[in-house]
Design a protein that fits this description.
mainly alpha, about 95% helix
């Protein structure tokens, strides 16, 4: 179990190093395009970054809403069962 955990942590560290390298490449591309007057690529990249930023939050919110609705319906069922048994 410990070996698997160490492997996952090592893989995550390697992946994060590669992602930082890509950020430097994106930054250089955007700086060059903006300096030449091309804003379409910068706007598209900005939208992509915002999309990637908000997607996990939207997924967590959807799970939380589903959990809340499910727990309320279970509470109503349990409350109705307690009244039926009395």
């Amino acid at each position: 179990m410990v070996r698997k955990l160490l492997f996952v942590l090592a893989a995550a560290m390697v992946a994060s190093v590669e992602s930082w390298a890509q950020c430097a490449m994106c930054k250089t591309t955007i700086v060059n395009n903006v300096s030449h007057g091309e804003l379409n690529l910068a706007e598209g990249l900005n939208f992509g970054i915002l999309y990637l930023f908000f997607t996990p939050y939207l997924a967590i919110a959807a799970i939380a809403i589903f959990w809340y609705i499910n727990s309320r319906s279970n509470a109503k069922k349990n409350q109705q069962r307690s009244f039926d048994s009395v």
